[in-house]
Amino acid sequence: MVNTLNWFEIPATDFARATAFYATILDAQIQVDPNPNMQYAYLPSDPQKGAFGGAIARGENFVPTMTGTTIYLDGGNDLSVPLSRVESAGGKVILPKTAIGENRGFIALFIDTEGNKVGFHSLG
Questions:
Q1: Band of the pLDDT at 72, cuts 50, 70, 90?
Q2: If pLDDT is split at 50, 70 and 90, which confidence band does 2 have?
Q3: What is the torsion angle, in degrees rounded to the nearest 10, for the CA atoms of residue 62, residue 66, residue 72 and residue 77?
Q4: What is the CA radius of gyration of the chain?
Q5: What is the mean pLDDT of residues 56-81?
Q6: From CA 14, how far away is CA 59, in angstroms rounded?
Q7: What is the residue extent of each domain of the chain?
Q8: In whole angstroms, what is the distance from residue 74 CA to residue 102 CA?
Q9: Architecture field, domain 7-122
């Protein structure tokens, strides 16, 4: 096993709103999958470099939540940059950029437009 985490899915109730939110905060294009059974969109990742990825999903078994597992998205070189886009995109910052220990970087938490608690992590 190379990585414990392999894939994640962020539940959405309003698919268009959720994809617009994540495209804005990540400053990236979100690739929508034309699946006729559910709404699904891939977040940016580069498997060629050993990165794992995730998606935004809307369907019967996808329920947004603020409890349970917390996913930390890559905050880049400084998570302050994507975090600064959260509230203008419709989310709410609930934990500002916070140091988590020497040489471990920083985290921040936010509530997305769907009601999910999500985080950013960066070394800077």
A1: very high
A2: low
A3: 120
A4: 14
A5: 94
A6: 10
A7: 7-122
A8: 18
A9: Roll (3.10)
Q: CA 119, CA 63: separation in Å to the nearest integer?
A: 18
Cross-strand bridge partners of residue 95: 109
Task: Supply the DSSP string of the chain, one letter for each residue.
Answer: ---S--EEEEE-SSHHHHHHHHHHHHTS--EEE--TTSEEEEPP--GGGT--EEEEEESTT----SSS--EEEE-TT-THHHHTTTTTTT-EEEEEEEE-STTT-EEEEEE-TTS-EEEEEE--
Between residues 18 and 36, the one the model is more confident about: 18
Confidence of residue 76 (pLDDT cuts 50, 70, 90): very high
| pLDDT single digits (tens) 85-99 | 999 999 999 999 999
CA distances from 30 to 22, 99, 106 (A): 8, 29, 25
Residue holding tokens 């992590």?
121
Distance CA 54, CA 8 (A): 4
